[in-house]
Amino acid sequence: MGSFALHSYGVMMAAAFLMGLWTAMSRARLAGLPPERIADATLWLIVGAVLGARVVYVTTYWNQEFADQPFTEVFMIQHGGLVYYGGLIGATLAGVLALWRLKLPLWKTADVFAPSIALGSVFGRVGCLLNGCCYGRVCQMPWAITFTNPQAHQYSGTPLGIPLHPTEVYDALLNLLLYGLLAWMFRHKKFDGQIFSTYLILYAIFRSVVEYFRGDYPDDHIHAGLTSAQLVSIPIFISGLALAAVLSRRTSAKA
Questions:
Q1: What confidence tens digit (pLDDT) does each residue in 60-84 have?
Q2: How far, in Å, are 5, 51, 73, 105, 219 from residue 78 at the CA level?
Q3: What are the extents of the domains in the chain?
């Protein structure tokens, strides 16, 4: 009888999607949206997120990881290999198409999903911690973590036996804080799109802060002292500000 391997990264990703779906459906009821359509839209978002995250990872790390490997390695995500911003872009594109097909209001539905995205990221980063990926720079602080599992080095290049910044924990805690803030704001929002735009603004800031402690980027992924994620955070931050300004002004004009 063959053995069955249950990968912690996959378990955490499944938990992320399930918790995101549950909280989004609960929030949909508050917004007067049909929860069953939110569930249908979630399936689109999951596919878009995974495809987008994997495509960006593969194209980014092609020379380092995939150029000399069988093509089937492109589809092997059980050990990690997903880029968050790629997932956000993929989920956004899939979401726009899904909301059009399901006849759901764009910005009101985006507000329903925004806190759940942050909550899902908490579980996703715990998965990164268990997997050993997205690790930090060398750290001498009392809360430093040390990886010892050879598989972490095999699959993610994680340094073993060296105290590192727990960047996965930093990111998880900041996303948990972001979830709480957005969930509270959802009950007090002034216009549709406010929660989603706030998510873009604050996540870009939080992610950029955590990136300063990351230690897993090759030298060619650092440009002008900034990581690729920090560079992407700049247009995400600007988009959030612009979206909030336009939607709030549109709401004021209708009042």
A1: 665 656 556 655 555 555 555 677 7
A2: 10, 14, 11, 34, 26
A3: 8-250
